[in-house]
């Protein structure tokens, strides 16, 4: 009897123990060469967990798009990619698209039907869903991305921002668990950038796992909680603040911190003291208001010879980095 009681107690204790989260997407030891034996990716490994917002950043030619092409088996090479522990090379195409949706930088490569509605409906129709379910998914996707009024338009007659929203809607209609976006805000006007960022964040709030590549550092902190720096291999991993604070990593990989972050680096050299430098406009406003409340409505900055020199050095450093990136 005593043994049985002890066994039941052990079972009850075990039930309460939660296993650590397992990656929803795992890349292991991925290596790929372009023609003529040109290295594109070298032993790349990364883990992405359910519900994360992750960004892959790096200079042009770092291998970001090549990495993403592996994630739907467009490219296959040495190494493995797992979704929930299943190797994608063992999954058929219909199962892969249910798990992973990818939006590439050029939306014209993913739009080919006569109307916006038809483009968004194409994926669900090929899943064999009923007409009613397809129409429901299309309507929901159009509403989420704000393209309902474009339903009968010819996709190739739309603006770049509208095309990207239509591609997003076509992916959303498939209801993948993982959304991968290659340069989603590239070449967009400010409003369109904000619209795309808001859509992506809403999808993440609803439980979708997000993986993006981007050069738009001013939106990076809003669109990612974790960053992988890629330059043919994984160079560094961290939060946006950790990566932006790592001067060596930024300089060696032709990367930039956000404008807000750089501004507050300058302000800190003349007396604006904050524990963590803001990454975004919203964080900057919060920090300024906090300091004003603590100091009776004032912010005190101090100019001395030494901090003036510090500001000049920071300015020159920022300009040097920009010149390197442009070159």
How would you describe the overall organization of this protein?
The protein folds into three domains: 25-91 and 177-252, Rossmann fold, CATH 3.40.50.300; 109-174, no CATH class; 259-326, no CATH class. The chain is 45% helix and 18% strand. Helix 4 (116-126) packs parallel to helix 6 (160-172). It is of the alpha/beta class and 327 residues long. The chain has helices spanning 2-15, 64-70, 93-99, 116-126, 131-145, 160-172, 190-205, 217-223, 240-245, 247-252, 259-268, 281-294, 305-326; strands spanning 25-34, 38-48, 53-57, 78-83, 86-87, 100-103, 178-182, 209-213, 226-230, 234-238. The longest helix is centred in the last third of the chain and has 22 residues, at 305-326. Mean pLDDT is 86; it is low at 1-20.
List the helices and strands and how they pair.
Elements: H1 2-15, E1 25-34, E2 38-48, E3 53-57, H2 64-70, E4 78-83, E5 86-87, H3 93-99, E6 100-103, H4 116-126, H5 131-145, H6 160-172, E7 178-182, H7 190-205, E8 209-213, H8 217-223, E9 226-230, E10 234-238, H9 240-245, H10 247-252, H11 259-268, H12 281-294, H13 305-326
Parallel strand pairs: 3-8, 3-9, 6-7, 7-8
Antiparallel strand pairs: 1-2, 1-4, 4-5, 9-10
Helix pairs in contact: 4-5, 4-6, 5-6, 11-13
Radius of gyration: 24 Å
| Helix share bin | 40-55%
- Measured between the Cα atoms of the first and last residue, the distance is 79 Å
SS-derived structural category: alpha/beta
CATH architecture annotation name of the largest domain: 3-Layer(aba) Sandwich
Number of E-type strands: 10
Strand content: 15-25%
């Amino acid at each position: 009897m005593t043994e049985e009681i002890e066994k039941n107690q052990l079972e009850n204790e075990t039930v309460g123990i939660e296993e650590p989260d397992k990656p929803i997407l795992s890349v292991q030891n991925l290596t790929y060469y372009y023609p003529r034996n040109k290295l594109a990716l070298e032993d790349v490994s990364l883990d992405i967990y359910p519900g994360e917002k992750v960004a892959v950043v790096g200079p042009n030619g770092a291998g970001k798009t090549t990495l993403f092409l592996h994630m739907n088996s467009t490219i296959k090479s040495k190494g493995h990619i797992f979704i929930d522990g299943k190797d994608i090379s063992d999954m058929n195409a219909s199962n892969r698209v249910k798990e992973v949706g990818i939006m590439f930088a050029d939306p014209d490569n993913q739009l080919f039907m006569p109307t916006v509605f038809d483009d968004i409906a194409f994926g669900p129709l090929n899943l064999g869903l009923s007409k009613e379910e397809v129409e429901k998914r299309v309507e929901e996707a159009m509403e989420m991305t704000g393209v309902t009024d474009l339903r009968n338009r010819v996709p190739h007659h739309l603006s770049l921002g509208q095309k990207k929203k239509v591609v997003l809607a076509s992916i959303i209609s498939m209801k993948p668990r993982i959304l991968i976006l290659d340069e989603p805000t590239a070449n967009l006007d400010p409003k369109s950038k904000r619209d795309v960022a808001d859509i992506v964040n809403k999808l993440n709030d609803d439980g979708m796992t997000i993986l993006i590549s981007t050069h738009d550092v001013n939106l990076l902190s809003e669109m990612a909680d974790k960053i992988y720096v890629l330059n043919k291999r994984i160079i560094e991993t961290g939060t946006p603040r950790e990566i932006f604070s790592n001067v060596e990593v930024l300089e060696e990989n032709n990367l930039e911190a956000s404008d807000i972050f750089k501004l507050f680096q300058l302000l800190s050299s003349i007396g604006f003291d904050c524990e963590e430098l803001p990454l975004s406009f919203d964080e900057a406003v919060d920090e300024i208001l906090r300091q004003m409340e603590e100091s009776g409505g004032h912010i005190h900055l101090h100019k001395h010879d030494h901090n003036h020199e510090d500001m000049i050095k920071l300015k020159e450093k920022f300009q040097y980095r920009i010149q390197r990136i442009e070159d």
